[in-house]
Amino acid sequence: MDIDLDGLEILSPEECWALLATAKLGRVGVSVGALPAIFPVNFAIDGETVLFRTGPGTKLRAAVDKAVVAFEVDQVDEQSRTGWSVLVVGQCSEVDGPRAVSDATHAGLDSWAGGERDHVVRLSSEFVSGRRIAATEGSG
Amino acid sequence: MDIDLDGLEILSPEECWALLATAKLGRVGVSVGALPAIFPVNFAIDGETVLFRTGPGTKLRAAVDKAVVAFEVDQVDEQSRTGWSVLVVGQCSEVDGPRAVSDATHAGLDSWAGGERDHVVRLSSEFVSGRRIAATEGSG
């Protein structure tokens, strides 16, 4: 078991993808007007890519256009103080027209934030990393 | 009630701070080696600043040193499809020595990830924004 400088277990890429498949809500980190921003998005896994939707004309849609972004998913149990976090870094590309509908449906991509969310973005996975968080005596 | 381009209710800064005070886990968006990254952190509110811990010598600690970062907190109910998301953008500064301990204790900052987390970072709040997510008929 590999441990990082914070004492957290380092997850293998296979474990990362398996954990990503169990979640529906992630966060995309982008730049908007030269400032960093993070937006929550519903997502689905399609092969080793991440699909998510953006609204038309939104800051998020403009920010992800061909951009390299960070995408993070975590699941934490506040009672047991255990959980995991997975980070995917890659380049975004918009999926066009009818393809967007079929790809999103195929991957089981769901979106439930208000408003129209017609635009589907595919994030490649250049880098995938993850950590498991476990409660330890005497931490923090 | 103000609505954004995605049909989401725009929260006032007062609502944002009130919601932040109800949560313990947030995500920090930074650059690591010119690539974007997002890390989950435990946090506490201290006035209109955010306090969180980093481990010594970690990527996160190096990345936040005097950096302008994004900090996001959300709370989402997958059943009712409602929730909120708050984004704070500001500059990080490390809180030194004994001050770190007293500030963290005063603010109720808790850290439960494994390993030593001796370094306390204070994030100023240059920009604070938030959205409420509500289920709507016919969305995505």
**Portion in beta strands of chain A:** over 45%
Characterize the overall form of chain A. Answer: globular
Q: What percentage of residues of chain A falls in helices of 4 or more residues?
A: 10-25%
Largest interface: A-B, 50 and 49 residues
Mean pLDDT across every amino acid position of chain A = 86
Low-confidence stretches of chain A: none
Q: Given the helix and strand composition of chain A, which structural class is it? A: alpha+beta
Distance between the termini of chain A: 22 Å
Q: C-alpha Rg of chain A, in Å?
A: 16 Å
Strand order of the largest sheet of chain A: 2-3-4-7-6-5
- What is the N-to-C order of secondary-structure elements of chain A (H for helix, E for strand)? EHEEEHEEHEE
Oligomer: homodimer
Helix count of chain A, per DSSP?
Answer: 3
Give the strand tally of chain A: 8
User: What summary fits the major beta sheet of chain A?
Assistant: 6 strands, antiparallel, barrel
